[in-house]
Amino acid sequence: xxxxxxxxxxxxxxxxxxxxxxxxxxxxxxxxxxxxxxxxxxxxxxxxxxxxxxxxxxxxxxxxxxxxxxxxxxxxxxxxxxxxxxxxxxxxxxxxxxxxxxxxxxxxxxxx
Length: 112
Fold this sequence. Notes:
The chain is of the alpha+beta class.
């Protein structure tokens, strides 16, 4: 039986950078070492940090790529900053400046 696998380029770098991120480093370390009492909403799956069911994304080029892809991608297409923010928040947990970051990326969109 064939098992399907998917490789998404860029995500593999996240796992190496959690410990370097000012926002997620402490959380990642605590959850990694078993502190589930103070960080009950976080979990690590295959070395990726999740907040509830959302993948934690810190400030990297992937961060901006995901904003742009969910704003301008083939599946959605120029929905504006508010709907782009909602799309991101459904799947990913960004550092607390999500609205500001989305507004910055969307403001550079020539189509909008």
